[in-house]
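User: quick one, fold this
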Amino acid sequence: MSITSVADSFRTFFYRRLQCQHQHLSDHLSELVENTLQDLTNSKCIAIEDEMDVSALRIGIILIATYYNIPYVTVEVYTLSLNERTKLKGLLGMVSPSAEFETIPIRQHEDMVILRQIYDRVPVKLDRPVLEAPHFKTFLLLQAHFSLLVLEKETDSLPKQIPHFDTEEAGVESVFVNSYPTLDVSYELVKGEYTAGAPILIRVSLIRDADEENLDDDQTVAAPFYPPEKTANRWLVIGERSTCQLHVIECITVSKSLFVKLEFTLPKGTHSLKLNAIWDSYVGADHYLSIDLIDVAEGEESDSAENASDEDMEESSTHTCPRLL
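Assistant:
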């Protein structure tokens, strides 16, 4: 159910989810809904018109926070803090203090022995490290991941560092190898006379590069240390670097092959777009494609589109555009 008004919020939480009739509980939850809507309004995630109608403003933050089940405040902090000039130290300082990492456990003697050994090997240091803090452990583990540090015993061979690999069990290594996504990604820009405000269509094909008999419809990620079962998804993103605009963002799941139609509109002018196909579960398997230049002629909605584009550019002039590779 989509929530488009304040009244929808109350009906959803009280009568659909809680089936609430008790007055005291109703008063408490009424205040909770009102405070939540006010927080979202203050963060410019939503707008409330005439004290009733609710509309989304920063749909990107809302979608990301909802999809990954994290507070919108965390995504908002990342959005305001991250820019194209952010270095590794700034990235670590932004991510590691997040509230989501407060519950990371510190085992007995881990802070003085294991974490100290890792800290001596990572490139970025802190002025006053607090070894027993969960955020410090997050700070170290993120660096170890980015630096590709091997945290197992130095005597372990490289193949044994691959998940599921055990030299004593023949064939187990295929679990990881066969699950690693190797896809051929291509696109076709539907030809036509492009005008401002008119739909533009791109067909994207994603085909697994494997033998037919070895293809498996199971898209569960091979991640034995990730607690829940995770399905491998891809994000298809079409954006324009020069204007800092994202025109399409869509989450997909590919088994053997998938053909997707992406539709968007552009204002008058010549546009250089990028098509990114990004995995949410695997490193090194993303695709970055440059789309042929698109010349868009003036259309019936060009004036309104250009005015809206100018307003968007003025609003975003104080923010740095995220990088589209």
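User: anything notable?
Assistant: The CA atoms of residues 94 and 141 lie 14 Å apart.
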